[in-house]
Amino acid sequence: MPRALGVEPALNMIVSGEPVKSELLAQIPGQKLFDKMSQSAESLAEEALAFAQSVADTRPLPLVRNLPCKHPNGDAYFQFARNMVKGMAKNYPAPLKCVDAVEAATKRKFDDGMVLERETKRKFDDGMVLEREFFTNLMFTPESRALRHIFMAERAASKIPDVPADTPQREIKSIAVIGAGTMGGGISMNFLNAGIPVKMLEMKQDALDRGIATIRKNYESQVKKGKLKQDKYEQRMSLLTTTLSYDDLKDADMVIEAVFEEMGVKEKVFKELDRVMKPGAILASNTSTLDMNRIAGFTQRPQDVIGTHFFSPANVMKLLEVVRAEKTAKDVLATVMALGKKIRKTSVVSGVCDGFIGNRMIEQYSRQAGFLLEEGCTPAQVDKAVEKFGFAMGPFRMGDLAGNDIGWAIRKRRYQEKPGMKYSKTADLLCEMGRYGQKTGAGWYDYVPGKRDAIPSQVVVDMIDKHRKDIGVTPRKISDEEIVQRLVYSLVNEGAHILEDGIASKASDIDMVYLTGYGFPIHRGGPMLYADQVGLFNVVQSMNRFAQNPLDDASFWKPAPLLARLAAEGKTFN
User: Fold this and answer.
1) Assigned CATH topology for domain 358-568
2) Does residue 406 register a pLDDT over 90?
3) CA–CA gap between residue 307 and residue 319 (Å, rounded)
4) What is the β-pairing status of strands 455-456 and 346-350?
5) Domain 175-350, CATH
6) pLDDT value at position 343?
7) Helix (H) or strand (E) holding 237
8) In the predicted model, is pLDDT for residue 114 greater than 90?
9) Residue-wise pLDDT tens digits, 239-266
10) DSSP string of 414-470?
11) 2-140, which class in CATH?
């Protein structure tokens, strides 16, 4: 490509992997990639035949390898390219090797000791040898294994052990959504984007008006940025209708509720849906933690009930946890998985448990984050350590974004249901101060109105210091390595319990949940694959060490039986 197209445009395409329109490439001065561009699709065959006849007798046949290949600024350009690539692809070794390979194409001889030194060897052959060596070495990197794992895991997620691929599906031509808030609006947009009509229900007209206004604002923002054409925007909005009456939902093929996360509220909604929805309609709940078996039990048709846990913002986040209740019919599960694909989600099946796959694991992660504060960390130190590891954001920035009051409500429930479960009180103290996160302008961090920048808060640091004194803890210096291990291995151990309980059917499903819904670093392949790469024996050894910490929860650090067995046998999750 550097020979046929020129060094700079070729390097840009090779490093990014982004496609470029042929019309643009044909305009590059001196390019040899295209000899001739057809005038139209209709004349293509005729023009191609004429061109073929005009060059049929050309001898010797021209070879790409014989084209000149150089850059006028040579070493300076490639150093500039390396600096740019290093900043853009810091977690991946391959893009920098792409630069090395293209540079090799421009030189006759190499002095880095990695290739044959013979002066007579042609530079094209030398470059091929070097490129092959780069490729072979990169193939055995952890990053390569992670990306190949993700490629396979994404496809495997749609395969459900006891639901054959040819399972008949129900026809979904229209969707009803209950709730016009942030979640309901985001869920609706997914279906509007896919060309599926949506009827949105609310109890009050002003709530509906706010919901419609938010959807319009989201689409108008896309139009303004050039990501959506005006006619497409109008087409999508034309598919959206609203109502204040459950009776108007009776003809929908599927209904998704996105109401308040409280069992009493869900009960009222599902009893109404059971009353009005036509036979065979799919009844779905967007619950993030509640018992889908109980929700299904509020109806006379539990076989039609399923969980569809979208992640906020629902019109952006790729993950969809599809929660299979005890009596969910196989055709309902197959239909919803196919529908997830149609609305461009990565759908992962979960069984019923508190928090399903993602939130059940994140609770243990959050507990560890709290213990780290009590033992000597600041929120900023914990966040920076895991962000350096590759997470999109640390646990405290994530809490501020989601709303710290959500976790507070869950902990209050836990104190009743599991009084023996140990938590740091720092998060409760934060909420008692009214610091719920970005929505209140103050959480673990301070926020300036209109901005999302997390500013470390002295008020929070002082609160944590006082709490340590109240419980008699002397703070200690904690390394970034310990922070990362405790947070990531808490996910791994709970993931092993989830596999053992049959909530997830395979470890790669857990990885997909964390990669697409919780910001786990792509280049590490998900928590379960990362544990495989570290070595499960090493993970267990670290967990045994954490169990000795009197300020931590020793019972949690007891390895899940599956993890202990795999580690003892020298096996892996994936």
Assistant:
1) N-(1-d-carboxylethyl)-l-norvaline Dehydrogenase; domain 2 (1.10.1040)
2) no
3) 13
4) unpaired
5) 3.40.50.720
6) 98
7) helix 230-238
8) no
9) 999 999 999 999 999 999 999 988 999 9
10) HHHH-TT----SHHHHHHHTT--BGGGTBSSEE--TT----EE-HHHHHHHHHHHHH
11) alpha beta
